[in-house]
Amino acid sequence: MSAASLDRTEAASSARRRLRLGRNRGPIIAVLAFLICLGLVKGVSGGTLGYYELSTLAAGGATLAIAAIGQTIVILSGGFDLSAAAVISLVNVTLAGHMEDTASSIALWTAGGLAIGALAGAFNGFFIAILRLQPIVVTLASMFILQGVTLLVMDKPGGQIPAGFGALLVGDAIPGLLPMPVLLLLALAGLWLLLKNTVFGKAIYSIGSDRDAARAAGLGVRRHEFFVYVLAGALYGSAGVFISAQTGSGDPLVGNPMLLQMFAAVVVGGTLLGGGRGGPIGTIFGAYVLMLVVNILLVLNVPAFYSSIVEGAILILAVLGASITHSSVLATTLRTARRRIAAHRAGTLPRQLRLEEHRLVLPAATPRIDRPPFWVRHAEGLRNALPAFICFALVLVVTHFMLGSSLVSWRYYDSLIVLGSFLAILALGQGTVILTGGLDLSLPWTIGFCGILCAGLLKGSDAALIYALPAVLAFGCFVGFCNGLGIVALGISPIVMTLAMNGILQGIALVYSGGTPDGFASPGLRWFMTGQIAGVTPVVVMMALFVIGAVVLLGKTAFGRRVYAIGNGVRAAELSGVPVKSTIVKVYVLSGLCAALVGCLLSGFSGQGSLGMGDEYLLPSIAVVVVGGALITGGRGSYIGMIGGVLLLTALQTLLAGTMLPYATRAILYGTVVLCAVVALREKNS
Amino acid sequence: MTRTGWVSAFVGAGLIGAVGLGLAPAQAADKYKIYLSMSYIGNDWQGEAANMVKAMAASKDMAGKVDLQVQVSGPNAQKQIQQINAMVQAGAKAIVVYPISPTALNAAVKNACSKGVVVVAYDAEISEPCAHNVTIDQAEAGRVTAEWLAKKLNGKGNIVAITGVPGTSVDTERTKAAKAVFAKYPDIKIVNEAVGLWSQAVARTELSKILATRKWDEIDGLWMQVGCYTANSMQIEAGATADKLKPCAGEGSNGGRIQMLPANTEVEGANGTYKPMSAPRISYASPPYSGALALKLAVQKLDGKEIPQHTTLPLPLVTNETIKLCQEGTWAEMKSGCNAFKPSLVSNPGWFASIFSNDTPEVGLNAALVGQPED
C-alpha cells in the first residue's frame, strides 16, 4: 500500500468518524447537558447521589421522556403533534376509572391505554397523511376533542390505580441495580435502534428531509406518515399508562401542561424542527435535563419570583451548548462580526470605498401586459381564505336561529369585533412569524407583562397615556428584538427562544408587580374598549384601520414580499438578495409590538392588568392563522384569511357560550368545527 | 467535537455556577428546614398566598425557628412530584404545598411521609391519607352562595353561571353543589354557563360573549366563582344605575367588597367602578391565608404538638349586612370585623380580601401585600 493511498484511507476514515460524530452531535450534547446538570445538583447540594436518588429521578422524568420520544418521531417525519398531552390525560383517566387489581385487568387496560393512544394517532394520521391536512391544525383540533372526551370520562381528579401496578412500573427491575423506568427507556431506545434500520425507520428520516424526494424515490409516503402518527400515539398512550402507575390515580388535567415541555425536550435533545435530523435517544436526555431544572432551582435556592427566569436561561444555555462549534450560527455570527470590524478598520467595507455605480439601466417603459382580473390574480389567496369565511357565515346563521336575531343586530357584530380584536392583532404578529416558518410562544407573557406595565404606568391617568403607551409598545418591540436576535444571531430554534423568553417575561412580571399587580387603566383607555359612540365601540374603528394597514403591510410593501420569500425558501430568498436576518428580526419585533398592543387593550378592556391575563391567547393565535389558510411551514397565507379565522373562531365561541352545553361538549364541538374548516381548505391536487 | 463539547461544558457550568454563588443558601442548622412547594405563581391569588407564607415565616415567633425556602414547579404535576422528591432528598423537615393535583402527588407525598417529613397542603387537597390538608369546604361554598342568590331572587329568575377551571375538584364540587340548590327552585333557570377560569379578565371575555346574544334585562342574577366585580363594572358601563345592579354571588376580591359598601361611603382612592355602589352581593373566598396557617401547623407538628389531619377553615362570607371598611388593615382591626380595604391601600381590585383568620395573628394586610408580618 502506498503512502498516498494510506493517507486517503486515513482521511476517509477520519471523515467517516467526523460524519458519525456530526450526526450524533445532538444526542451527545444532550447527554453532556444532562451530566452537567446532574453534576451541578450533586456539587451544590453536597448530598448523596446513590441508587435511590437516581431511581427517583428516573421515575420522575419517564413520562415526559416517553411522550417526547413519540413527539420526536413525528417531528423527524416533518410533522408536529399538539394532541400528545391530551392523549396522556385521556389514558390516565380511563385507566383510573377501569383498571382493577387483577393481573388480567392490568394487562387488559395497559393494552387499552396503548390502543387509545394508537387510535388517537390513527385519527390524526388519517387527516394528515390521507387527506393531506396540516399537522398543526389537525392535532390542535384533536387536542380540543380529546380534552373534551377526557372531561366526559372524568370531570374531576379521582379513581384508583392498583398499587401493585405502580410498584411494577415505578419500582425496581433488578433491586439496587436497575430501576424499572430505566429498563423501560432502554427497551424503547433499543426498539428505536432496531426500527431505525427498517424501511419504515429510513422512511421517517427521508420524508422529514424532503417529502418530494422521498416520494420520487418510490416510498409510500402516505402510508409511512400514517403509521408515524399511530406509533407516536401509542407512545403517548404508554406515557399515559406510566403516569397512571406513577401517580396511582386519575386527573383530567394531568397531561396538559406537558405539551410545551415536550417540544423543549425534543429540541434540547438535538432534533431539528422541520424534520430529518435528530432522534429519540437525545430526546430522552433532553427530557431529563428539563426535569433536573427543578432540582437545580432547589439546590440554588432561586427565589420563587425568579424561578421562571432561571428556567428560561437554563433552556437557552442547554441549547446554546449544542451550537458552540466551528460551523454553528453563533460562531459564524461572531466570525462575520470580527471580519466586518477588521474590514472597517482597514477601510475596505463596500460602503467605505466610494465605488462607482455599476447598476444596470433598464429601459423605462416595458410593453404593457394585460393584467388578468382581480379574482384570477388572487385565485389562490381567495381559495385559501374562503373556507374560513364560509364557515363564519354558517356559524352566523346557526347563531341567528338558535339564539335570536343576531344577524340583524349591530350589537352582536360590535361585540364580535371587540372580542375578536385581540386575536386579530395577534394574528398579524403570529401570522407573519408563521409565514417565515417560525412560531412565537412568548405571546402569553408579553401580553401579560405589557398589560401589567401599561396599567402600572397609567395608574388611572389619561395624561399618562402619552408616555405609557409608547413605552409599553417600545418594550414589546424590544422583546421581539431579543427573540429575533436569539434566533438569527445565536441560531436558537424559534420554539426554544420564544418559550424561554416567555418564562423570562413571567419572572419579570412577578418581580415588577411583587406578586400583586397594582395600577389600573385610565378612563380614556377603558372607554376606548368598552364605551360607545352611536352604538359603535371605538376600538372597532381602530380595527378597521388596523386591518387595512396589515393587508397593505403584508401585500404591498417590500417587507411583506420578503416575508413570503423567506417562508418559501430561506436559501432562495438569501440568494435573491433578501436581507433574511434583518427581516426575521423585524418579523419578531412586529409580533412583540402586536402582543404589547394587545396587552394595553386588554388592560383597558378589563380595567386593570392581572398576572396570567395573556395565557388564553397562545393557542388561539396559532389556530386563527392556520384556519385562515396559512401554511404552518411558511410562505402561504394572507391576512384577510386570518381575519376570517378570527371571525369564525370568535363567532363559534360566542355561539357556544350562548348554549347550555357542558364545557366538555363545547370543546369537542370547537375541535370538530376547526377540523371541518380545514378539511374544506384542502388542496385538491396534493 | 470533543473540544467543542468541553467548551460548552465549561461555558454551561461557569454560567450556572455564577448564578449559584450569588444565591447559595445560608445553612441554619438549628432551624427547621421547611420548603414551600408552589405549583404555579402566575396569578394574583398565588402571589398573595406566597407573600403571606413568607410573612408568617418572618414573624417574631417563627423567625428563629424556621428556615423557609420557597420553590415554584410550574403548573405541571410531573415537576411538582420531582420537586417534592428533591425536597425530601435535600433534608426537608416539613413541606408546605399548594398541590396542582389532589391525586397525582400521592405517591411522592407518601414517600415523603415515610421519611418522616410533615406534609401540609393548603387550599387544594391531597388525597393521600398521611398528608395534612387546610381547605375550605368547597361544596359548602357552592351551596351557601347559591342559596343566598335564590333567596335574593325570591326563587324566581334567569341566572348566568361563570365557573372555574374545568376538571378540578374545587370547580366541580362548587358547581355541583350550587346546581343542586338551584334545582330545588323550579322557577330559577340557569340561562348561560361559561368557564371563567377564576380570572376577572376571562370572566369579562365570557360575559361579553354571552351579552353578544343576550341583554342585561333578560338576566336576573349571577352566580360566579370569580367575576362579580367585573359583572358590576360591565353593568355600569352599559348604563345601569347603582340601584339596578343584579344580585351577584361570587368571589372575595377587594374590588367586589368595595362595591358592596353603601353608595355614599367616602373611600380614599376610589376610581372608576372601583368604588362603593351598594352592589347586592354575597362574597366568599378560598382565603389566601391558608398557606400561612399551613406553615404554622407544620411548625406545631414539628414542635411535637398534634395537629388535625384535615383543617376545614370557616368559610369567609360577607354580605351587604356585614361589609365593613378597614382603616389600616392590621390583624387587630380585622378581628373587630372589618373586611374590605381602601383602594388607596390596595390598588388592584382583583386582589383577594379574605385575609383574616383568628388563628393567624402574625399576618395582616402588609403580609398579603408585601410579605411583612405584624409586629
TrEMBL record, chain A:
Topology term for the membrane: Multi-pass membrane protein
What sections of the protein cross the membrane?
Answer: 26-45, 57-75, 82-100, 106-129, 136-154, 174-195, 226-246, 258-275, 287-306, 312-334, 385-404, 410-429, 441-458, 464-488, 495-513, 533-554, 587-605, 617-634, 639-657, 663-681
Give the CC-aspect GO terms. Answer: plasma membrane
- What is a single molecular function from GO for this protein? transmembrane transporter activity
Keyword flag Transit peptide? no
Compartment(s) where it occurs, according to its Swiss-Prot or TrEMBL record: Cell membrane
- Predominant subcellular localization, coarse grouping: membrane
Supply the alphabetized keyword list: Cell membrane, Membrane, Transmembrane, Transmembrane helix
A family per Pfam: BPD_transp_2
Which PANTHER family does the record cross-reference, listed alphabetically?
A: ABC TRANSPORTER PERMEASE PROTEIN YPHD-RELATED-RELATED (PTHR32196), INNER MEMBRANE ABC TRANSPORTER PERMEASE PROTEIN YJFF (PTHR32196:SF63)
The protein's name in its UniProt record: ABC transporter permease
In its UniProt entry, the species of origin is given as Lichenifustis flavocetrariae
Output the lineage of the source organism: Bacteria, Pseudomonadati, Pseudomonadota, Alphaproteobacteria, Hyphomicrobiales
TrEMBL record, chain B:
Q: Where in the cell is it found?
A: Cell envelope
Q: Does the keyword Signal apply?
A: yes
Kindly state which keywords UniProt assigns to this record, in alphabetical order.
Signal
**Gene3D superfamilies registered for this protein in UniProt:** 3.40.50.2300
Instruction: Report the sequence similarity comment from the record.
Output: Belongs to the bacterial solute-binding protein 2 family.
* Protein name per its UniProtKB record: Sugar ABC transporter substrate-binding protein
Entry keyword Membrane? no
Superkingdom in the source lineage? Bacteria
* A single GO molecular function term of this UniProt record: carbohydrate binding
